[in-house]
Amino acid sequence: MHIFSQDDASARAGAWLTVNLKAIADNYDLVAGLGAGAECAAVVKADAYGLGAAQVAQALAARGAETFFVAHLDEGMTLRETLPHARIFVLHGFMPDCESRMQAHGLTPVLNSLDQVRSWKQLCERAGQTLAAALQFDSGMSRFGLSVEDLAERNLFEGLNLQLVMSHLACADVPDSPANEMQRQRFVTMAAAFPGVPRSLAASSGIFLGPDYHFELIRPGAALYGIAPSEGHRVLAPVVSLDARIAQIRTIQPGDRVGYGLSWTASKPTRIGTLGLGYADGFFRAQAGQASVWHGQTRLPVIGRVSMDSISVDLTDAPADLKAGDVLSVLGPQQDVDALARSAGTIGYEVLTSLGSRFHRVYAPAG
Question: Stretch 92-98: mean pLDDT, rounded?
Fold first, then answer.
């Protein structure tokens, strides 16, 4: 039961997302413990997976995180305003002619190509400084990073102030995949060209592969936000709940149909509740006929198509006195992010990063 005063913004909202900063910080502590001996960084790209980078990063910094990763330059510039003294790596490095902005905001680029290496060295020469950087290796994913052939350009890497060499695992969520060991061995070989430079291979799923994958720095992302790499690792605390008010209730008769395309037909008298969230908020169209919301322990199926701003739910099994304005749970104890993702045939990462900005947000403090 959620009780709000009339002037509480949540009372006016059709749906609201609660982010438990303590749970995020606790997950950080848990993952840091798994990587004992390695520094534990924090990945807060994509606005901390949609949950608010400023709020999340401050909570993690208060728990001791000193190193953060974002994907893009603009994300790093924004995060620098929140964390003036943190070490911030930008995973994509920089676009051509943007390296000076990286320097101006005290950001550390992850250099993924020989062109980026050249541009960064030229900036260092113009600035008369040896500016910090990281190198990413392509250890087998064929996505970002320098190839083995690129590393033959030994002279090009001389004089770089390297803070980190890193790579990324393609199949870490499949512990038995032979690709994991193949990439680990290739990474070790490539990193050997830069003796003494800290190494990082494991993101969230990779951390659970064990100490052989931890090296000097681990960089959890999804794990901080409660997404487990597999069913066998349900040790992470859920960090979000999503609640929505019933906007309208109506009773329809056998043969009446619901929503765009009239794709769902009532077979008996049915109470229908309309909630004010839809695919504009990250509740995917693929979840029509697959997902549910909850009233306490009672499952209420989503029926008809998902609209931009609304969904319809079957209230047949709900208490008869349920009325407009009452609250149903979309994400919570009965249904976590991974469960909701399965109803859309996707993964928790996509659900989290798609949760719409229209939701009123409530942050439960980390302290």
Answer: 94
For 33-49, the pLDDT digits (tens) are: 999 899 999 999 999 99
Q: How far is CA 221 from CA 130, 205, 285, 306, in A?
A: 29, 9, 26, 29
Which positions are catalytic? Answer: 45, 260
At residue 341, what are phi and psi to the nearest 5 degrees?
Answer: -65, -40
Tell me whether strands 240-252 and 42-43 are parallel, antiparallel or unpaired. Answer: unpaired
Report, as an integer, the average pLDDT of 309-320: 96
Pick left, alpha or beta for residue 277 (phi over 0 → left; psi -120 to 50 → alpha; otherwise beta). Answer: beta
d(CA 225, CA 241): 12
Position 59 confidence tier, pLDDT thresholds 50, 70, 90: very high
Average pLDDT of the chain, as a whole number: 93
Considering only residues 356 and 8, tell me which one the structure prediction assigns the higher pLDDT.
356
Q: Structure tokens of 274?
A: 């309309």
> What is the pLDDT at residue 10?
57
**DSSP code per residue over 111-173:** E-SHHHHHHHHHHHHHHTS--EEEEEB-SSSSSSSB-TTGGG-HHHHTT-EEEEEE---SSTT
| 232-261 per-position pLDDT tens digit | 566 899 999 999 999 999 999 999 999 999
- Alpha carbons 16 and 277: distance in angstroms, whole number: 10
Chain center to CA of 161: 30
Place of tokens 């997302």: 17
Half-sphere CA count of 41, side-chain side, radius 13 A: 28
Phi, psi of 267, deg, nearest 5: -100, -5
Cβ neighbors of 173 (< 8 A, separation 6 or more) are 205, 229, 230
